[in-house]
TrEMBL record:
Pathway: Lipid metabolism; fatty acid beta-oxidation. It is an enzyme of class 4 (lyase). Belongs to the enoyl-CoA hydratase/isomerase family. In the central section; belongs to the 3-hydroxyacyl-CoA dehydrogenase family. Keywords: Fatty acid metabolism, Isomerase, Lipid degradation, Lipid metabolism, Lyase, Multifunctional enzyme, NAD, Oxidoreductase. This is enoyl-CoA hydratase. It comes from Exilibacterium tricleocarpae. The keyword Ubl conjugation does not apply. Residues 317-495 form the 3-hydroxyacyl-CoA dehydrogenase NAD binding domain. GO terms for cellular component: fatty acid beta-oxidation multienzyme complex. It catalyses: a (3S)-3-hydroxyacyl-CoA + NAD(+) = a 3-oxoacyl-CoA + NADH + H(+). Its EC number is 4.2.1.17. Residues 497-592 form the 3-hydroxyacyl-CoA dehydrogenase C-terminal domain. Pfam families: 3HCDH, 3HCDH_N, ECH_1.
Length: 718
């Protein structure tokens, strides 16, 4: 044994070949944590000191090669100063350089995923052989940073700056065929031939049949581009990538600028530039929040799996109420592999639900992501019915009828009598109390909310709403089913609006207050879209449906009268009375035309101001800051209240629910991260500036206490 550690071993094989094997003890995957990088240094030193080695094979003992850096260490590392981060990154790169500079050829055998630092490790060796089932990629820009172990230096020199810019900026995984086509790997073989092929390639290097030294020298040298080629390549890439990334995500363009700046440099100087850029990005709120988002997603998934582990899988589901929502639920269930019965009271509803599922599947076929045979197979997993025949074999039912308490009471009581005693009954209600809906049920312990967000196939979040009598078993099976559907379940307590819609309600209420005070909704929309929301509040009202929004507002006003009641007629109520329901009938805040692709396109309809005039002050300008403050402060304060009241288990769950449920700008991290980034004391002071606007802007006593004590919702390392 040449070297033996807890993450890396180096052993001698036959014919003078050494094998450096990654196998991080106690983990299911390999990753570059502090232990692994330190052992890489030691392994490199041992290889350099050992005699008689003719070649190095780099492998993994896990099912994957290396999934990248240990992101749980980012928070601690990013708390260093910018200069300290740059120096630490550059120092770590010397361990990779030591492998690249060994006086004999090296080959990496890539099995499974080689992502981030995993691919960068493979790039340090002279050749790479890849399993046909493996994937490689540099996903760092999705965390607000750039590759830090030489990815911006070695990859452009291997596959060209254009291909490297696309790989790094997009941050996507690449299949073996794509990696081979552009030269990132040198061979692709079937998984069972991987080791044999890698050893064969290494032997060819040892025998002098392949000029590994020339290949290595090209990888360490400046990019082979003249000034005109470089200018055209990089300037074009920056323009395209800036348009794709948008103004809130600096990492993709920063990666291209780094490659450009280092184009005429040798390896070590180029690595200095990479380290400087990653250090600068690591100190941004964007990187901090995107890293927190990644870790939050992992925490969310871990909590969901703990619930799911307490339940058997749902083998047969059912949805009550076909239509668009029911069809979307049926599609998602069948597409992800759980057979589902779709029941309605009339054939028209069934036809609409099947049509919705077929439409979504047809789009996959058109895009080449599904075959027609597979589409037929998925549709066969949906059983349409007008009766309750066979419902005694259903494991879980999702009620998705109209949002009317009396109708839901009748349907839920009726279906409960058709189910087995251990079957779970859920309601896809967006606002109606779960405890109230449970009133007519004989087994309320088997009932909970399962709130999908529209459109079902696109929105990741599912709120699993626990009523006062809901059992752990009901929550567990519902969470299990949500996971099986490919969703992100968050368990919340029952209250008006539950979690996400409750937090959204003050945001919409604040927007209504701005409209009363003379705001121009088109300008408000532009400011909030620039802030990072996928759409502004007026456009959101139109997309959701003015009628739906008015109904939700009534529920929230009744639930929280002290904060959410109003003494004026809102602009949405005015539109509702004028039969302007938004996109669904072509007129709301905006009017809607059909674009060339048949999609609704919003246009300004000046006639709407005549409707608003009797109820709103004359139009006036609000500053961008005032616009943001007036709608965001109430949203954030309601988020604080939900956390304090235990509606959700943690600050992480709350922020993740907002990101996955209503598109809260991911780079801002969620409502509670937004407060932390501003500073709790500064946020409270800002809220107090708007005290005359009413209780929506009033901080809680606990938040004031946090401000006084310098507390935050998340630790600095989160």
């Amino acid at each position: 044994m040449i070297y033996s550690g807890k993450a890396i071993t180096v052993s001698a094989l036959e014919n003078g070949i050494a094998e450096l094997n990654f196998d991080l003890q106690g983990e299911s995957v390999n990753k570059f944590n502090t232990l692994t990088t330190d052992e890489l240094r030691r392994a490199g030193e041992a290889l350099a000191a050992a005699g008689g080695i003719k070649g190095l094979l780099v492998t993994s003992a896990k099912d994957v090669f290396i999934v990248g850096a240990d992101i749980t260490e980012f928070g601690k590392n990013f708390n260093l100063s910018e200069a300290e981060i740059a120096e630490a990154v550059y120092a770590t790169n010397q361990y990779f350089n030591a492998i690249e500079d060994l006086p004999f050829p090296s080959v990496t055998a890539i099995n499974g995923y080689a992502l981030g630092g995993g691919l960068e490790m493979a790039l340090c060796t002279d050749y790479r052989v890849m399993s046909s089932s493996a994937k490689v990629g540099l996903p760092e820009t999705r965390l607000g940073i750039i590759p830090g172990f030489g990815g911006t230096v070695r990859l452009p020199r291997l596959i060209g700056p254009d291909n490297a810019a696309e790989w790094i900026a997009a941050g996507k995984d690449q299949k073996a065929e794509a990696a081979m086509a552009c030269g990132a790997v040198d061979a692709v073989v079937e998984p069972d031939l991987l080791r044999e092929a890698a050893l064969d390639l290494l032997q060819q290097c040892i025998d002098g049949k392949l000029d590994y030294a020339a290949k290595r020298a090209e990888k360490k040298a400046p990019l082979q581009l003249n000034d005109i080629e470089a200018m055209m390549s990089f300037e074009t890439a920056k323009a395209v990538i800036a348009g794709q990334a948008g103004p809130h995500y600096p990492a993709p363009v920063s990666a291209i600028k780094t490659i450009q700046k280092a184009a005429k440099m040798e390896r070590d100087e180029a690595l200095r530039e990479e380290a400087k850029t990653i250090a600068k990005l690591a100190k941004t709120e964007v990187a901090k929040n995107l890293v927190s988002l990644f870790l939050g997603d992992q925490a969310l998934g871990k909590a969901a799996k703990q619930w799911a582990s307490q339940s058997e899988d749902v083998k047969q589901a059912a949805v009550l109420g076909a239509g668009i929502m029911g069809g979307g639920i049926a599609y998602q269930s069948a597409y992800k592999g759980t057979p589902i019965v779709m029941k309605d009271i009339n054939q028209a509803g069934i036809d609409l639900g099947l049509s919705e599922a077929a439409k979504l599947l047809s789009k996959l076929v058109e895009r080449g992501r599904m075959t027609a045979d597979k589409m037929a197979g998925v549709l066969n997993q949906i059983t349409p019915t007008l009766s309750y025949d066979g419902f005694d074999a259903i494991d879980l039912v999702v009620e998705a009828v109209v949002e009317n308490p009396k109708v839901k009471h009748a349907v839920l009581a009726e279906v409960e009598g058709k189910l087995a005693k251990d079957a779970i009954l859920t309601s896809n209600t967006s606002t109606i109390s779960i405890d109230y809906l449970a009133e007519p049920l004989q087994r309320p312990e088997n009932f909970c909310g399962m709130h999908f967000f529209n459109p079902v196939h696109k929105m990741p979040l599912v709120e699993v709403i626990r009523g006062a009598k809901t059992s752990d078993a009901a929550v567990a099976r519902t969470v299990n089913y949500a996971l099986a559907m490919g969703k992100k379940p968050v368990v919340v307590k029952d209250c008006p609006g539950f979690l996400v819609n409750r937090i959204l309600a003050p945001y919409m209420g604040a927007f209504m207050g701005m409209m009363r005070d003379g705001a121009d909704f088109t300008k408000v929309d532009k400011v909030m879209e620039k802030f990072g929301w996928p759409m502004g509040p007026a456009y959101l009202c139109d997309v959701v449906g003015i009628d739906t929004g008015v109904h939700a507002g009534e529920v929230m006003t009744k639930g929280f009268p002290e904060r959410m009641s109003r003494d004026f007629k809102t602009t949405s109520e005015i539109l509702f009375e004028a039969d302007r329901y938004g996109q669904k009938n072509g007129k709301g805040y905006y009017a809607y035309e059909t674009d060339k692709k048949g999609r609704p396109k919003k246009v300004v309809d000046e006639s709407v101001w005549e409707l608003f005039a009797p109820h709103c002050e004359a139009r006036r300008d609000f500053t961008d800051e005032e616009t943001i403050d007036r709608v965001m402060i109430p949203l954030c304060l309601e988020a604080v209240r939900c956390l304090e009241e235990g509606i959700v288990a943690s600050a992480t769950d709350l922020d993740m629910a907002l990101i996955y449920g209503i598109g809260f700008p991911p780079f801002r991290g969620g409502a509670l991260h937004y407060i932390d980034d501003m500073g709790v004391a500064e946020f409270v002071a800002k809220a107090d500036k708007y005290a005359e606007l009413g209780p929506l802007y009033a901080p809680t006593d606990r938040l004031r206490e946090m401000a006084g004590n310098g507390e935050t919702f998340f630790s600095p390392e989160h």
